[in-house]
Design brief:
This protein has about 290 residues and is α/β, with parallel strands linked by helices. The radius of gyration is 19 Å and the shape is globular. α6 links the parallel β9 and β10. It has two domains: about 90 residues, Alpha-Beta Plaits, CATH 3.30.70; about 190 residues, Vaccinia Virus protein VP39 (Rossmann fold, 3-Layer(aba) Sandwich). Helix content is about 30%, strand content about 30%.
């Protein structure tokens, strides 16, 4: 038997909750975001809220986690197979771009010659590529690196590092992943090792955007929430090289215009957009 602590929170707090659960010894964390397609039988999410489900081997760490967060929720006992076995059935290899796959460690993707496979452990990382906004970014990164082989890539708000891993495996030049959360950055470093990426191949930066090494970059990707995208617009725009591309996601379709306007004000030019399950990807260029 094991224990599950189920917490609801605004979507912009879910990744922080996941990080805190891992700090308290969670064996695995599942995040459910608004508008995400949930598995059959899963209770619906409260309006505007997401859900963080953390699994613990013992009850005491789960209770302590809730107490430290000031939450009243108590863990519930679950059968081991409810999450450690059945959970794996919902994490299978999937194609995320013309030449790229994302897979869990326990099952290889049927990748063909010249195709890239990124390994993500869903139990140890937030940002597995299953969310529509991340999937949109993975897809476009693959396409852009096919059009511009060897281009430098900056991943703003790298999370699990999944975009940085794919950039390396598709032959990008310099690759940098920046984060403001040291826990997330450590998860990304472990993910790089899991993917067989040499320690210095990706520059991981726990830094202000103005201190990002090696700027500007030919491809800049920022898969983060609207308020942060708008706030960081001047700094992010400065990292886009002449003729470079900026890919923005983490946006609901209703937020597209506001995000685009913030970067047009910085001199960038709108290029393309794509939409999936209520989420949108916006692409702009420098000149």
């Amino acid at each position: 038997m094991s224990w599950a602590l189920v917490l609801t929170a605004p979507p912009d707090e879910l990744e922080l909750l996941a990080a805190r659960m891992f700090e308290h010894g969670a064996l695995g964390v599942e995040l459910q975001e608004p508008q995400q397609q949930l598995m059959p039988g899963t209770p619906p999410l409260p309006p505007g809220e997401g859900r963080c489900i953390a699994h613990f081997a013992q009850r005491e760490p789960a209770v302590e986690s809730a107490r430290d967060l000031g939450r009243a929720e108590m863990p519930v006992e679950v059968a081991e197979e409810d999450w450690s076995i059945a959970w794996r059935k919902h994490h299978r290899p999937r194609r995320v771009g013309p030449r790229s796959w994302v897979q869990p460690p326990w099952e290889d993707a049927p990748a063909g010659p010249g195709e890239a496979r990124v390994v993500i452990n869903p139990g140890m990382a937030f940002g597995t590529g299953s969310h529509p906004s991340t999937a949109l970014c993975l897809e476009r990164l693959d396409e852009l690196l096919a059009e511009r082989p060897g281009t430098d890539v900056l991943d703003v708000g790298t999370g699990s590092g999944i975009l940085a891993f794919l950039a390396v495996k598709l032959g990008a030049g310099r690759v940098c992943g920046i984060e403001n959360d040291p826990v997330a950055l450590e998860v990304a470093r472990r993910g790089a090792a899991l993917n067989g990426i040499p320690a210095r191949r990706i520059e991981w930066a726990l830094a202000d955007l103005d201190e990002v090494p090696g700027a500007p970059y030919g491809i800049v990707i920022a898969n983060i929430l609207l308020n942060t995208l708008v706030e960081l617009a001047p700094a992010v725009a400065r990292k886009v090289a002449p003729a470079g591309r900026l890919v923005l996601s983490g946006l609901l379709t209703s937020q597209e215009a506001a995000a685009e306007a913030a970067y047009v004000a910085q001199g960038l030019v709108p290029r393309t957009r794509a939409e999936r399950e209520g989420w949108v990807r916006v692409e702009l260029s420098r000149g």
